[in-house]
Design a protein that fits this description.
This protein has about 850 residues and is α+β, with helices and mostly antiparallel strands. It is about 30% helix and about 20% strand. Strand 16 and strand 17 form a beta hairpin. Its EC number is 2.4.99.28.
Length: about 850
């Protein structure tokens, strides 16, 4: 009999369990309302918060974010038996029912914290039926969640008046502090407001709220929840709560990260708030933890905003700043514009992702690559003369040429012509390929269309890409993707930038045309995936060090003013850049700790006369370095083991030859750098009176002497001649030499220009494709000639090759030099119909 009863009991229990499971399936718990999208700093503090889809401020908080004092006060005030009851408190229910039935005391519903959570998840009218459903939901909640989970739900959903829900939201919006920073008085205040969110709203009813706070402080002290001494101190604290704006630091990166997390399920308004679909919104229950350092971000935003205000009279309205920690490759500050809310000047455009012309900022990377290919060393002398590269005629920024300069001088003064010469040696394809490996997405996509103007800014790049390129130099040539979020957090997805940049080569400089308009366009959603790539050795440690050493020698703009503090100022290697038309000013610098990139300009693409990297972007760069890296100990780079010294000729920077008495020290890469000996001077046999020179075929038995003559490159020789610079010319070759062809011989043995005819007039039809032919007769030992039009280099050609040009109307000077340095000119007049 007892066995049968036991079976019946177990069967009944099983049926009851099945029934409960069925009801649980039929009436599932209501979903937790979506939290506000929140972007956190590296330390977990809130950088930026957005409204939840239902337009509520509902910031997620973990129990670890809530102080034990707040939890104890809340439980003591709302539900002392919370840890022990199953969701409902039968004793409290009976007391409340008796009190309500007898009409004695304050009417109460005896709601537990679990029952309040049920009501917050599924609001209902205050009726007996609603209370019963609330109790059932409370039991259901206890079956599904732990006590800590239920308490966390309550802390995140409890109302605080207006559209504020949750303890964390209330702490930030009423006190401007996270919950764990609150005092005891502020903590107890937050436990009181939910009982009457309208009548005790902070900032509107502070007197009534303070009275209620003090009442509960005394009561909690009497109950032994808090020490009497702490309560006495809390009673003296004034109540200063008021409604504050939500945290809004790093708005551009915050929007970028939240958009990626939403994956296209929401859209952002100009105000920075968001409208999201309830069915597709991620929970955001932990927030997105970025790598930004709160103090660094705040300082960068303040410096940028105040600096741009000073530039307003110059017609310059925007700036962007990126700060990278070199040791971790994490972004510590991200300032997309001077003021996100400045709609007049397109403040919501993200200047860090905007595709712009990089100006001269790519030159350090070019020279480092050329060093790794053995083409140059710091003391290598490069031509700085007017040159036409297949129709592309670059000019230096100041429109001047120096003839010949060392690489380190060319880089320090950001000369354009030497850089184009080096790029021609290295190869455009090699250069753009390495930029693609360095994360330059627009350059990688447009590489087949790019030419020599790339090194002068004739391509598209972003501040994000350029700053990481300099961080690569700062990290001994190792490239790694930048990291925006903490490990395991979502980051920007990999995608191509929207739009593009078309190359344009023209006389005078290079310009960037972006999809038919010079205006800045914001990169579309995306960017490279962060934190997943491994390091890539783009440059050798030696070339990275040499470029760093050169860039650190530039005179800082702030030292003449603050020279007495120079011992504490951070040492910085830095480079500037200015795009064609003065639309973009760049200044990027680095030391052992930070790489900082600065862009200054107008988001509409308008240029300004004062907009140059040196004058406009660099002061902000050093303001940032002085604020972030002041008195950092002066740690600097040491020469790597793979670098060595050697003596070179100061005239060419090459290994000294037999005619190089003067020598200087230069760095070089053993086994890589060019070891050809210098030939800047050539030994020539001349007559005793210096009237003619001899080759070995016509060298007389006596009556001659050996003389050294400079062996200039033809374009350098032509530059010196055109500008009246002193230079020694070798005497004409012996006219009686048997190797001279009578038909082609000239008194000075220079090439004879056969076309165009000297002093002739040429009429070209502008509607046709007519061109002017250049043809010469050169001496028998000439292997190559060099053509110039109005002292601008046209091209090199074989002596018998015809060259064609299409000149502009007006006087035209045609020059031809052979590979022996001999030169001749003709003048013609060109007219167009």
């Amino acid at each position: 009999m007892n066995k049968r009863r036991g079976l019946r009991f177990l069967g009944g229990l099983a049926v009851l369990l099945l029934l409960l499971l069925g009801l649980d399936r039929l009436f599932p718990l209501p979903p937790v309302p979506p939290y506000s999208p929140v972007v956190l700093a590296a330390d977990g503090s809130v950088l930026h918060a957005y409204l939840a889809p239902d337009q509520k401020w509902r910031l997620p908080a973990e129990l670890s974010d809530i102080t034990p004092a707040l939890r104890e006060a809340l439980i003591a005030k709302e539900d002392r038996w919370f840890r022990w009851h199953p969701g409902i408190n039968p004793v409290a229910l009976l007391k409340a029912a008796g009190r309500n039935a007898l009409g004695r005391g304050r009417r109460t519903g005896a709601s537990t914290i679990t029952m309040q959570v049920a009501r917050l998840l599924e609001p209902k009218e205050r009726t007996v039926g609603g209370k019963l459903q609330e109790m059932l939901r409370a039991l259901q909640l206890e079956a599904h969640y732990s006590k800590d989970d239920i308490l966390r739900l309550y802390l995140n959903l409890v109302p605080y008046g207006s559209n504020i829900e949750g303890v964390k939201s209330a702490a930030l919006l009423y006190y401007g502090q996270p919950p764990h920073y609150l005092s005891l008085a502020q903590t107890v205040t937050l436990t009181i407001v939910p009982n009457n969110p309208t009548g005790l709203a902070p900032g509107r009813h502070n007197a009534a709220l303070q009275a209620a706070r003090n009442k509960w402080l005394r009561r909690l002290g009497e109950q032994g929840v808090f020490a009497q001494k702490d309560v006495a101190n809390a009673l003296q604290e004034p109540l200063l709560a008021q409604r504050r704006a939500a945290p809004q630091l790093a708005p551009h990166l915050s929007r970028r990260l939240v958009q990626e997390a939403l994956r296209g399920t929401g859209s952002f308004h100009e105000s920075g708030t968001t409208t999201l679909s309830r069915s597709t919104t991620p929970a955001f229950d932990a927030g997105i933890r970025s790598t930004l350092v709160r103090s660094t971000q705040a300082k960068a935003e303040d410096l940028t905003r105040h600096y741009v205000r000073r530039l307003a009279p110059l017609g310059i309205t925007q700036a962007a700043v990126l700060v990278v920690d070199n040791r971790t490759r994490t972004v510590q500050a991200y300032v997309g514009s001077a003021d996100f809310h400045d709609l007049r000047h397109q403040g919501q455009v993200d200047g860090i992702r905007a595709i712009r012309s990089p100006g001269s900022t790519l030159k350090p990377f070019l020279y480092a690559l050329a060093m790794d290919r053995g083409l140059v060393t710091p003391k290598r002398v490069l031509p700085d003369v007017p040159t036409s590269f297949g129709g592309f005629r670059p000019e230096n920024f100041d429109k001047r040429c120096q003839g010949e300069v060392t690489l380190e001088r060319a880089l320090c003064y950001s000369l354009n012509l030497p850089a184009v010469h080096v790029l021609q040696q290295l190869g455009v394809g090699e250069f753009t390929g390495q930029l693609g490996r360095a994360g330059f997405r627009t350059v990688a996509r447009q590489a087949p269309q790019l030419g020599l103007s790339t090194i002068l800014g004739g391509c598209g790049a972003t501040l994000e890409e350029l700053t990481n390129l300099y961080a690569t130099l700062a990290n001994q040539g190792r490239y790694e993707p930048l990291q925006w979020t903490a490990s395991g957090q979502p980051g920007p997805a990999k995608s191509d930038a929207s739009g593009g940049a078309a190359q344009r080569e023209r006389s005078g400089s290079a310009s960037l045309l972006t999809a038919g308009s010079p205006s800045l366009r914001e990169r579309g959603q995306g960017g490279e995936a962060r934190g997943t790539g491994s390091a890539t050795q783009l440059l050798s440690e030696s070339s990275a060090y040499l470029v760093t050493d050169i860039l650190s020698q530039l005179v800082r703009p702030d030292l003449p003013v603050g020279y007495e503090n120079s011992l504490r100022l951070p040492r910085v290697a830095w480079k500037t850049g200015t795009s064609y038309g003065r639309r973009d000013a760049w200044s990027i610098g680095y030391n052992r700790h930070y790489t900082i990139g600065v862009w200054v300009g107008n988001f509409g693409g308008q240029g300004a006369p004062a907009l140059t990297g040196t004058d406009v972007a660099t002061p902000l760069l050093f303001d940032l370095f002085n604020a972030l890296s002041y008195n950092d100990g002066g740690e600097w780079y040491a020469p790597p083991a793979g670098l060595d010294f050697r003596l070179v000729c100061p005239v060419t920077g090459q290994v000294p030859g037999e005619h190089c008495p003067d020598q200087v020290m230069d760095y070089f890469l053993p086994g890589v750098s060019d070891v050809r000996r210098c030939e800047h001077q050539q030994e020539v046999f001349v007559a005793a009176d210096g009237a003619v020179s001899y080759c070995r075929s016509c060298l007389p038995a006596a009556g001659y002497r050996r003389v050294l003559f400079p062996n200039f490159a033809p374009e350098v020789l032509a530059f010196k001649a055109a500008n009246g610079l002193p230079h020694a010319l070798r005497p004409p070759h012996n006219p009686a030499c048997a190797l001279v062809r009578a038909a082609d011989a000239a008194p000075d043995q220079a090439p004879r220009i056969l076309s165009p005819t000297p002093n002739a007039e040429y009429v070209l039809d502008a509607r046709d494709s007519q061109q002017l032919q250049l043809r010469c007769a050169a001496w028998s030992d000439v292997r190559q000639v060099y053509w110039y039009a109005n002292d601008q280099f046209v091209r090199a050609a074989a002596p018998t090759e015809a060259v064609f040009i299409r000149p502009t109307a007006g006087p035209l000077k045609i020059s031809c030099a052979d590979d022996h340095g001999r030169n001749t000119n003709v003048q013609v007049l060109v007219e167009q119909l």
